[in-house]
């Protein structure tokens, strides 16, 4: 029986982060009475972008993590990559919430997310080719 318990664990932690990012949007929408779009509200636009960036990168990373787990990756590697992804997305959200320009936490978040995607992609290809 194939299980994805470690991928499920990191997907769940990232799911909680996603809910938190969503709540940040809802709070601004309610206080500014903006139902759709951003209506020029810079705080809302920033929070929508943080949420959107998360939505763009995390699903692919979790698919790759799940494939890696199914193909027999070690628990150590899965924890390293899942933990790095979680910290990367937290860092990105913190960095972008502080400044819409460049910031160290944002740069670390983006770079780490790319590294996780790259490692998972290469590892899944390696496991396919050499299986």
UniProtKB/TrEMBL annotation:
- Asked if the Swiss-Prot or TrEMBL record annotates the protein with the keyword Secreted, the reply is no
Task: Tell me where it resides.
Answer: Membrane
Please provide an example of a Pfam family that matches this protein in its UniProt record: MAPEG
Supply the alphabetized keyword list.
Answer: Membrane, Transmembrane, Transmembrane helix
Q: Give the main localization category.
A: membrane
GO CC, one annotated term: membrane
Enumerate the transmembrane spans: 6-26, 54-71, 108-129
User: Superkingdom of the source?
Assistant: Bacteria
What is the name attached to this protein's record?
Answer: Glutathione S-transferase
Tell me the classification of the organism that encodes this protein. Bacteria, Pseudomonadati, Pseudomonadota, Gammaproteobacteria, Alteromonadales
